[in-house]
Amino acid sequence: MYPQQELDRLAAHKVALRLKIARRRDSIARATRGVTRPLAWIDRMLHWWRQTPPLLRIAFVPLAGALGRVLLPRHRTLGRLLRWGPAVLSGLRHFLRPSDRAA
Question: Which residue has better confidence, 101 or 12?
């Protein structure tokens, strides 16, 4: 039906195409792991934070502020984030939460 040369050429092309797909798949998997690594860390920290008792959470805020001033005295952005972050997050939760009044 097909000449043997054509079949051999198609088989070689198929092998090369499969190798190219495997290399792309590996590079995409590596890139995905690199992107999701910080997200996994944030997820672990959120899980840890939700497991901590409320009194420890209250004590953590001033301790984090003091530790931030000691470790990073010149970085004002971190201090602002620690100061205003909880207020901004609670405000966002309020606006993003479905309203009970909606009918």
Answer: 12
